[in-house]
Amino acid sequence: MQEQDSQRSRWTVLVVDDELQICRNVTRTLELYGYDVVQAITGEEALQVFARYGHRIDAVVLDIVMPGLDGEAVFREIRNWRPDVRILVSSGNHDSPAITRIRSHPGTASLEKPYQPAELLFSLERLLESPIEPSTGEVH
Predict the structure, then answer these.
(1) How far is CA 119 from CA 29, 38, 67, in A?
(2) Measured between alpha carbons, how far is 113 from 62 in angstroms, rounded to an integer?
(3) Is the peptide bond before 134 cis (omega within 30 degrees of 0)?
(4) pLDDT digits over 98-123, tens only?
(5) Euclidean distance between CA atoms 60 and 78, whole angstroms
(6) Domains of the chain from N-terminus onward
(7) How confident is the model at residue 125 (pLDDT cuts 50, 70, 90)?
(8) 61: closest CA among 18, 4, 98?
(9) How far apart are CA 27 and CA 103, in angstroms?
């Protein structure tokens, strides 16, 4: 257990959700379990945060449905900058075309809202522990 805790403390996660309470709850849960967390409330803010901290972000917990720049657009930009970053997408509509398109890329997983903290932690840990092949070319 101690080894797993020390591994978490080396992981930095960007949490992106336009619902402030969800963003806070996810951040609090991840911090409680030893992750370093940065957060964004909009897609535009997520790209600004990623531009600044992207070199140290290991994973993104990304809401798909957001006003303005949606999660799929944020996914494409982040993956074009860093093809190796892992992305856990979340949505209340798990069968949406956007979720299906994103899940077809390596290093991605999805989590249906609403989810419990244990589901979030399990999905994120599984994603971070999985190998990812760097992609060549842009994400479309």
Answers:
(1) 11, 20, 26
(2) 12
(3) no
(4) 888 888 899 999 999 999 999 999 99
(5) 9
(6) 2-126 (3.40.50.2300)
(7) very high
(8) 18
(9) 23
